């Protein structure tokens, strides 16, 4: 069934998009008749650079659009502050299908029409917020599109949540921790004064970083669900956790076909390997993405291996998406993902919930500096905490960091996606 959908999607894109016709000029297969997964893998991956180049040469949408511009219902773009943003034109039919799929997936994580749901991510050019809203609305829940990002908004969120007692929250994992801390500072107990049964997240690692996930679960006494792929790939909930999974996300292969590819050779990887999730829309008529290289890193497992109680026969990313290839720090020959450091820190009781990673290059030798918050209510003193952090990080990544301990609340919190790494090395390391 998936192969049939792939065949239809590729043929549609090829016949309706000048971009794909050009992009597939030299391929050895017939893009109007893909008869096997092997043939499909002959198609070149689509890179971020190719999309940007195309949209620059054929503004604003590039020749991806495939539908008449009058048929566009929504326009979104990347929310980055540098460079030309990528533009996504979504047709009415696609926007409707996104609602259907998101509603179905949200049902699968336990949401029901009589639930009240608060959305606490910014309503900016971030498809996370709008995609979640679209699904929650279609499911028929009472939706509270609260947003995030304004000064003082988190303090207000605490009061609203204590009053309205929503059953579910959508946002980023970093924001949930910030919200919980703010509630505690204001004298609330989020396990008692809030009544969340489930929180669903996307946008960054966290919900599948085991100790971060546990921190959120205990802070709010609720179920945590990880979700998300990329804005380009909406319905981005096609990667979704499940109530039966301890960690990670199922890959709903009949909505968005996902492959894991070798970061260097781009070869298809079997289950049990680590690689770059590469996504293909299966039901998009507007701006379909075919073999879009995410630049993220994940590990996948077969349906038999996961054997999830939910009964779904999808592959699973049991550790979620744990970083971007270009977020991986290569320090003295060791590969380090910020999410590994996050996992170790959240496992320490005295951790104050925020940290920063600074990498420097002194006389050609890389140094790893961590600025870590300590919760002053804990029994552990600064020196002991510093030693604990050093030991734990060394055990994880094989390198001893220099650790600066600061008190909880010192480092800035985010209301969106966290950015905790500063690489000050003069000579960039080519990865
Ligand atoms: C993630 C995750 C995750 C996204 N675990 N990393 O997924 C929601 C969509 C709308 C989104 O975040 O899109 P956006 O802004 O284009 O960012 C995509 C990137 O965000 C993606 O490549 C990942 O690096 C990261 N991301 N969801 C870990 N659940």
UniProtKB/TrEMBL annotation:
<feature type="domain" description="AMP-dependent synthetase/ligase">
    <location>
        <begin position="78"/>
        <end position="275"/>
    </location>
</feature>
<dbReference type="InterPro" id="IPR028154">
    <property type="entry name" value="AMP-dep_Lig_C"/>
</dbReference>
<feature type="domain" description="AMP-dependent ligase C-terminal">
    <location>
        <begin position="333"/>
        <end position="425"/>
    </location>
</feature>
<dbReference type="InterPro" id="IPR000873">
    <property type="entry name" value="AMP-dep_synth/lig_dom"/>
</dbReference>
<keyword id="KW-0436">Ligase</keyword>
<dbReference type="InterPro" id="IPR045851">
    <property type="entry name" value="AMP-bd_C_sf"/>
</dbReference>
<dbReference type="InterPro" id="IPR042099">
    <property type="entry name" value="ANL_N_sf"/>
</dbReference>
<dbReference type="GO" id="GO:0016874">
    <property type="term" value="F:ligase activity"/>
</dbReference>
<dbReference type="Pfam" id="PF14535">
    <property type="entry name" value="AMP-binding_C_2"/>
</dbReference>
<dbReference type="Pfam" id="PF00501">
    <property type="entry name" value="AMP-binding"/>
</dbReference>
<protein>
    <submittedName>
        <fullName>Phenylacetate--CoA ligase family protein</fullName>
    </submittedName>
</protein>
């Amino acid at each position: 069934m998936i192969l049939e959908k792939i065949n239809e999607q590729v043929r549609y894109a090829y016949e309706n998009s000048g971009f794909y016709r050009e992009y597939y000029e030299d391929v050895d297969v017939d893009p109007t008749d893909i008869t096997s997964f092997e043939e499909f893998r002959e198609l070149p991956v689509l890179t971020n650079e190719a999309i940007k180049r195309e949209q620059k040469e054929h503004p604003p949408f590039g020749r991806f659009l495939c539908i008449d511009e009058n048929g566009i219902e929504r326009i979104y773009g990347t929310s980055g502050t540098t460079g030309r943003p990528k533009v996504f034109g979504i047709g009415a039919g696609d926007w409707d299908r996104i609602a259907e799929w998101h509603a179905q997936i949200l049902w699968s994580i336990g949401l029901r029409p009589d639930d009240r749901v608060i959305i606490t991510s910014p309503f900016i050019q971030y498809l996370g917020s709008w995609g979640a809203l679209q699904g929650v609305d279609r499911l028929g829940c009472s939706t509270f599109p609260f947003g995030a990002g304004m000064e003082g908004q988190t303090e207000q969120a605490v009061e609203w949540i204590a009053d309205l007692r929503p059953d579910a929250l959508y946002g980023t994992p970093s924001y949930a921790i910030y919200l919980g801390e703010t509630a505690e500072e204001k004298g609330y107990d989020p396990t008692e004064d809030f009544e969340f049964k489930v929180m669903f997240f996307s946008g960054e690692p966290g919900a599948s970083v085991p100790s971060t996930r546990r921190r959120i679960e205990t802070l709010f006494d609720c179920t945590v669900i990880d979700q998300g792929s990329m804005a380009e790939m909406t319905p981005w909930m096609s990667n979704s956790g499940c109530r039966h999974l301890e960690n990670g996300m199922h890959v709903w292969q009949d909505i968005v076909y996902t492959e894991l590819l070798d970061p260097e050779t781009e070869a298809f990887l079997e289950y049990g390997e680590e690689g770059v999730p590469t996504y293909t829309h299966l039901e998009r008529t507007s701006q379909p993405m075919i073999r879009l290289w995410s630049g993220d890193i994940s590990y996948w497992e077969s349906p038999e291996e996961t054997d999830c109680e939910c009964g779904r026969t999808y592959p699973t990313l049991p550790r979620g998406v744990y970083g971007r290839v270009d977020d991986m720090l290569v320090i003295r020959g060791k590969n380090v993902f910020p999410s590994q450091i996050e996992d170790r820190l959240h496992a320490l009781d005295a951790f104050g919930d925020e940290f920063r990673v600074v990498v420097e290059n002194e006389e050609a030798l890389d140094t790893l500096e961590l600025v870590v918050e300590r919760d002053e209510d804990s029994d552990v003193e600064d020196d002991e905490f510093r030693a604990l952090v050093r030991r734990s990080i060394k055990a994880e990544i094989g390198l001893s960091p220099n650790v600066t301990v600061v008190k909880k609340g010192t480092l800035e919190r985010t209301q969106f996606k966290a950015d905790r790494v500063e690489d000050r090395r003069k000579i960039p390391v080519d990865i």
